[in-house]
Amino acid sequence: MAPARFPLSLFLTLIFFVALPQAIANTDPSDVQALEVMYNALNSPTQLTGWRIGGGDPCRESWKGVTCEGSAVVSIDLSGLGLDGTLGYLLSDLMSLRNLDLSDNKIHDTIPYQLPPNLTSLNLARNNLSGNLPYSISAMVSLNYLNLSNNVLSMTVGDVFAGLSDLATLDLSFNNLSGDLPPSFGSLSNLSSLFLQTNQLTGSLSVLVGLPLDTLNVANNNFSGWIPHELSSIHNFVYDGNSFENTPARHPPAFISPSPSGSHNSHHHSGSGSHNKTQAFDNENSDGHKGLTAGAVVGIVLGSVLVAAILLLALVYCIRKQKGKEKGARNFSGSLPRGVINVTPQMQEQRVKSSAVVTDLKPRPAENVTVERVPVKSGSVKQMKSPITSTSYTVASLQSATNSFSQDFIIGEGSLGRVYKADFPNGKLMAVKKIDNSALSLQEEDNFLEAVSNMSRLRHPNIVTLAGYCAEHGQRLLVYEYIANGNLHDVLHFAEDSSKALSWNARVRIALGTARALEYLHEVCLPSVVHRNFKSANILLDEELNPHLSDCGLAALTPNTERQVSTQMVGSFGYSAPEFALSGVYTVKSDVYSFGVVMLELLTGRKPLDSSRVRSEQSLVRWATPQLHDIDALARMVDPTLNGMYPAKSLSRFADIIALCVQPEPEFRPPMSEVVQALVRLVQRASVVKRRPSDESGFGHKTPDHEAIDTSF
């Protein structure tokens, strides 16, 4: 029997050793799926040899540019291949990925909000990426190299760098970034190279003081003020093309030899705007014999001490004399504007807290940035904590533009007051919200300008821009950009012309645009902005049916008591989440629920609450939710004005997203970033709209009527 057993055991051993390498080489399924989604989003390019969708094994089959360790993908290098498309929505599933290089391609759309969390190197330079920096960068604590240069990134640089202590190289050059440098730059304790040239950045460089920089390029921006002398030690420093008041000085002015030209304006930058530390030291050594004698130095020191003593005595005399005067007779002639009260330590602490929490809402360069003196009912004066970046209007100018707030100019009415169409002499059309003073308590009235300051910093293509405000003569008014095509609620429920019914394409695009707006408020803004009044009536549509979310930030003007809010901002029955009705708690997940209700409106064409229907169908959520996963019932639920013109699978996936958003338990609802990804995936699969590289959101144009809808999905 023994001889018979030997061949069998040998055979089994051979099978084991043949199968073992294949088992080891099998790529992690989540990595495979993420690469397949990226491949599809890049339009399945022929340059990516070995890549395929379905049944592939990147590690065993050696997909182009993919490096593995065991079964995990650890590096993707696809630079310079001429790839055209987007990055997909599953990059965050590449948990073991350390290096991602997609530079020198033609990739467009925004950078995905969710990136591989354990990257040490990310290079997306020289593409056509738009939008701003995703907040997920803040969680990439192992990141050592980040290059996003030569794209079309815009808005402010997000304050996402606080935890990136390992970052050594940061390149954001040749974009269209604006605003001040974020405070978290000061946390980059290992940063040696920083490239910010050719943007629209403003403010000062003071946040960079103390960083171990060896290379710094800030050329061709809008920086101003004085260059901190601490930056003079940077080996390679390029700073031309700004409005600095000085160059990086290495010595006190008394020890600087006059230039050959004898110019008295040498403190203004007019040269090449760069310097090299080694060259500077060589110049110092070559000019060393021109220094002052010991006697001259002693004379200068003694004279300086005498002058300082005289100034000190004079200062003491002035202070004592000033204290003898009454407070009412004080006259500030320095930098404080007349009428501004003295800054107490408590107010200073408030300012520090304000600047710390409003991190990603940096203001763009403002036409009217002032520190205002705000009279309140108690007769005291309230100091603004942060500047306002929108224009200040007078009551007279707004009265003139609205024909004295005529009834004929009313275009809407909300919980805080009426909205008027304003026609200015220059032909500009705006929307003016006149806030009813009875809707604001004393405290909220005092906080009006602080709320305006925060609202004016919200910048997103799917959010209605606050263009100005008015706070005089007891009036409180907000001036917004005018969106001409009405709101989603009226288009869905009161459109008399059936030819104006929204197509399926338009409905998906509206859902995606408003989801992006909420994602910006919840996950990009710091701290998060809760809308509290999300409903179809607050989604305005422009001429191309792009959505613009209104009333963002207005929750700051409502009472702090949650129960009171129910009669004001959260007074739209049918949209409120269950937890608000039960406990008065309202969070970002409550906004997600309201978004799901609006998606139900888009799907069914029904109102959230409709008393004209039979009792079982009056509440849209209660009626629709049990049927969302029933294909036959779903087909009967669809808005009849669509006339069956929709892709069946696209409809089913749309319903799946709704079901997630309107779950009763807030903890089970997805964050808006996941909702956005799901809608993007729906669009990519169903080809609902065609993308344009110039469109930040990817879906910002109306689909022509003759454009066929792909129903094969």
Automatic annotation (TrEMBL):
Coiled-coil annotated residue ranges, if any: none
Signal peptide per UniProt: 1-25
SUPFAM superfamilies for this protein: L domain-like, Protein kinase-like (PK-like)
Domain of life: Eukaryota
Chief location category: membrane
Location in the cell: Membrane
Record's protein name: Protein STRUBBELIG-RECEPTOR FAMILY 8
TM regions (residue ranges): 292-319
Keywords associated with the record: Leucine-rich repeat, Membrane, Receptor, Repeat, Signal, Transmembrane, Transmembrane helix
CC annotations in GO: membrane
One Pfam family linked to the record: Pkinase
Protein kinase domain: residues covered: 405-682
An example Gene Ontology molecular-function term: ATP binding
Keyword Signal: yes
Organism encoding this protein: Cajanus cajan (Pigeon pea)
Span list, region Disordered: 249-286, 693-713
PROSITE patterns for this protein: LRR, PROTEIN_KINASE_DOM
